[in-house]
Amino acid sequence: MHETGTSGTAALVALRNVGRGQSGALLRRLGGSGLLALRRARSLPRALIEAVFETDDTDLLRALAANPGLDHDTLLRLARLGHPALARTLYRPTNPERHTVVLRRAVLAAADPADTDWRAPHGFVPWLLTQHHERLLEPALWAPFGELVAHALLALGPDLPPAVVADRHRALRDLLDESAFARFRRAAGDLDHGDLLDRLDDPAAAEGRQLSSAAHLLLLRIRRAKGPVPVPPDWSAAREEHLRKPFPSSVTAVLARWADCPDEIVRDGGRSARPTLRARAFRLPAPAPGRDRDHDLDHDEWEWTPLLRRGLRRGRFTASALLTEAGPAVAVLLALPDDDPAVHAAVHELLAPLGTDADAWSTVLAELPRFPGTPAALVATALAGSAPNRAHTRPSGGDPARNLLFRCASSAQQHTLVSLLDPPALRPLLAAAPPDRALRERLRAVHGPAANLILAGMAEQLPDTVAELLDLDDPAVNALLFRRAELDDAAVTRLLSGVDRTGRPGTVPLASALLGCLERDEGPNRRRAVDVAPASDDPRVARIVLHRRALYTDAGRLRALLDRWRDAGPDGVRALIDEATRHGLEDSRNPFPAETVKLVRAALDDVDGPALLRARLAEVTTPAAIVTALRGPAHAADVVLAESGPPPWDTLIETLTRDSWPDQVRDAVVAHPDCPRELLLARLAFVSDHPHDVHTWVRAALDRGALTVEDIVRTCRPAHVAFDLLAGSAIIEDPTAPRPALDPWRLPDELRPRRLRARLGTAPEAWTVAVRLLPDFSGTLIELLDTAAAMATPISRATPACRTPLSRGV
C-alpha cells in the first residue's frame, strides 16, 4: 500500500505483525484505520482476509469488498455470502470484464428476495432500477427480483436476440403477479420484435421455444460494443440477428475481419457510412460507393486510421490492395504509415502514371479532400480529365495525405510540384520531406527569395541546408531559423552574435522577430540561447538573457557583469547598461536595480573597474551578508543560496540552531547538496507537519548518504512524518523484500517484525494504542513505540523497561 494515508498504512503494519488469531480483534479495535487499510492496501495477507470472513462484520466485509486489488476468487466468495450491504460494492466495474459479468451474476444469484434489506430505500434493488447501462443491466436479466428483470428487459429488449426475450418473458410470468406483469406488457409494446411478445402471451405457443444461451447473450455485447468487439462463437446466430436488426457499421466492419464472417455482414460493412471501415475486413469487398457530398471529410471519419494501420501491420491486406480497393482516397492515404518502405513503393507505383503532367497533378491535389473513390480511381480520373467542373483555385498542400504523395513522388514529379504550387502550399510539403540540393536549387529558381524563407521555416533541417541559409546573411531568414529549426550551439552563437559568412561579428543585424522570440522564450533554441548568448556582442541579447535568468541577488548580478566585462570588455558592459536602462530604470525589462547601475557606471569610469565590482561582490558574499539575505523573503532562500556561492556552513549551523527561522528557509538550506549532516539532523528533529514538504530534501540526503533510515526512525519528529517517509519507501509495507546491505533505504532493526513484536507484544492492545497515537504524537517513532507499550501494560503488572542499546539516547 503506497501513499494511502498514514493511519491506513500503520493499521496494515499492525495487522501484519500482531499475533496469530488476533487480527479480527485488532480490526474491531482499530475502527476507521482498519477499514482504511482493508480498502486501500495493494495486497492483503491471506490470513488477514480469513480473519475478516471469520468476524462476519458487515463494515469489515464491505471495506474488504471495496479493495481494488482483491483477487476474483475472494470477490466471488464475498458475493456468495448474500449480504445486501455488499451488493453495490461488488457490482462495481472491475477488470477484466469477463470477471465482472460472473461477479455480478454471483451477487444476484445469492440474493434472497425474501430479505427486505435488498429492497430497502437506497438499497441495491432501488439503485439498480435507476441504472440504464447494458453492462449493469445484462446480469439483471437473471435476477430473482421481477422488477429488475422487467427493467432490464425494457431497456435491452430491442437489442436482445428473440431467444433471450422469450426466455426472460417466461421468467417474468413466474416472478411477477398478474397486475405487475400486465403493467410490464403495456410498457413493453413489441420491443422491436414484431409479434413475438403477442405470441408468447399464449402459454401454449410459448412452450417448446428455444432456450437462450451464452452465445445469444454475447450478441447483445457485440451489438453495443464501444471498444473491442467479441468474436461470435456461432456465426449463424450472428447472421440471423444481423438480418433481424442490422449491427452498427462500427461492429460489422470489425466482424468482417474474420475469414468465416457471413457475406451479409461483410457486405453491409462495406456499405457503411464510413467507407474506411471496410479496410479492416479480412477481405476487401466492393469499392466504395459514390457519394454526392461536396465538402471535406468529417474528422470522425478519420478516427478509423489506427484500425487501417493495424490491418496493414497484421497482414490482413497489402498497401497496394488498399490503394486500389478501399476509399475514400484521403482516408486511405491518411491511414498509410509514411515510414514503411512497402507503403512508399506502393504509392510511388500508384503515382507513376501521372508523370510530370501538371494538369493531372493539379486535379489530384484539388480533388483529394472530397473524392469518394479509391486513390487508384482518383489517379485514373485525373488522367482522364473527367473531374467535376469546379471553380478551383490553385491546388493547396498541407495535410498528411498530400505530404505522403509528395514524399513518394519521383524527383522529377517533385520538381513539377515545386513549379505548380504556391510557397504557402509548399511549406508543409517540404517540411515533411526535407529537399535535397537539386530540389532546393529548383525551388530558388522558381520562387526566388521566398524559397529561402520556406526552407528556413522547416523544423527538421539538413546540416548543409542550415549552412546555406546562414551564409545568406539575411536577418529574416536567420529569425525563422532561430524560431523553427533546432540548431546546435555554434549556429545559435553565430545567429545571436550577428556573424557573417566571413566570420566578422556584429555585421548581420538581428531582426526584431528574433529578439522577440528570444524575449518571449519561444522556439526550440530558447534554452540553448541562455547558455550561449553571453558570448554575443549585441547588448540587446545580453539584456534579454539576463532578464530571463531573473537574477535575484546582488551577488548573482555582479557575477554576470564581471563575466560580461571579461568577454566583451568595458564597452560591452557600457552597451549592456545603456540597453537595459534605455526605457528607464524602473522599466520591467531592466534586470538591474538603480544601485547596481550606479555602481557599474562608477566602475566604468574607474581605472580598475573590475576590482571595484569584485570588492562589492566580496562584501555581499560575506557570511553575515548571506545570513542577512536569507532573512529576506522566505520564498527566495533557495535563490540566495544558489547565487551567493559556497554557503558559510559554520555560520549557518550556529544561526539556524540558535534563532527562529521560517520553515521555507530551513528547508532551502537542508536541500542544498552540500548541507552538512549536523544541520540535516537538526532539521529532521523539527520537520514541517506536512510530509510532502519534507520528502524532497530527505530523499536527496538519503540517496547521497548524508542521512540514513535509522536517522528517520530515531530523530524525525513528529512520528507520523517519519512513518510517512518510511511508508513511501515501501520498506514498512514489504519488509521481506531483499535490499543491499548499504542501501540507504534498508529497514532498520527496530522496525523488523521480530523486534516490533518484542517491543509491542502479540496482543492487539499495544498495536491499537500505537496506531491511534500516530497521527498526533509529537515524538519520534521509537518514542511512540515505547509509549504505546507502556500505555498498554496494566499498571499493576508494570515493570521497569529494559531499554536496549538500540533504543537508548533518543
Helix content: 55-70%
Task: State mean pLDDT (0 to 100 scale).
Answer: 80
Q: Runs with pLDDT <50, length 5+?
A: 272-303, 389-394, 729-745, 795-810
Give the number of helices. Answer: 50
Share of residues in strands: under 5%
Model description:
- The chain is mainly α and 810 residues long.
- Helix content is 58%, strand content 0%.
- The protein is built from 50 helices and no strands.
- Helix 18 packs across helix 19 and helix 49 crosses helix 50.
- It is flat.
- The C terminus is likely disordered.
Short note summarizing the structure:
The protein has 810 residues and is mostly helical. The protein contains 50 helices and no strands.
Protein traits:
disordered C terminus, about 800 residues, 50 helices, about 0% strand, flat, about 60% helix, mainly alpha
Fold blueprint:
Blueprint: H1 6-17, H2 23-30, H3 32-40, H4 46-55, H5 58-65, H6 72-79, H7 84-90, H8 97-109, H9 124-128, H10 134-137, H11 146-156, H12 162-175, H13 178-188, H14 196-200, H15 203-206, H16 214-223, H17 235-244, H18 249-255, H19 263-270, H20 305-313, H21 319-325, H22 329-335, H23 341-351, H24 358-367, H25 375-384, H26 400-408, H27 411-420, H28 423-432, H29 437-447, H30 449-456, H31 463-470, H32 475-484, H33 489-497, H34 512-519, H35 526-532, H36 539-549, H37 554-580, H38 594-605, H39 609-620, H40 623-630, H41 637-643, H42 649-658, H43 663-670, H44 677-684, H45 692-703, H46 709-715, H47 719-729, H48 753-760, H49 764-773, H50 781-792
